[in-house]
Amino acid sequence: MENRVRELREKMGWTQEQLGKALKVSRQTVISIEKGVYNPSLDLAMHISYIFGKSVHDIFITETDWRIGLVTKELEETDMSIEEYERRVAEIEKLRRS
After folding, report:
1. What letter does residue 54 receive in the DSSP assignment?
2. Is 13 left (phi over 0), alpha (psi -120 to 50) or beta?
3. Cα(92)–Cα(37) distance, integer angstroms
4. Cα–Cα distance between 6 and 3 in angstroms, integer?
5. Tens-digit pLDDT profile for residues 56-88
6. Which of 11, 40, 69, 77 has the highest Cβ tally under 10 A?
7. Type and span of the H or E element at 2
8. What is the pTM of this model?
């Protein structure tokens, strides 16, 4: 899962060690979260969101969020209807399966 932890930490001027201490986790855990290697528990994600003053959803980007953003961007950049877009995606998926 992608996230904005590093971006938000750097905006605050904090080191990974300082954030780790605030979260009561190791610097290595912060590094793993920032790199997307480790997805934090819900409790830890909520603690992170509290520290940064953002919602969990504003910090952590799921695969679904990413795909929705991509589709929205593509539709905004074209005059394509959602129906036409869905038809094209279905054609691509059909080609991938064959």
Report:
1. S
2. left
3. 30
4. 8
5. 989 998 777 777 777 777 777 787 787 887 888
6. 40
7. strand 2-3
8. 0.68
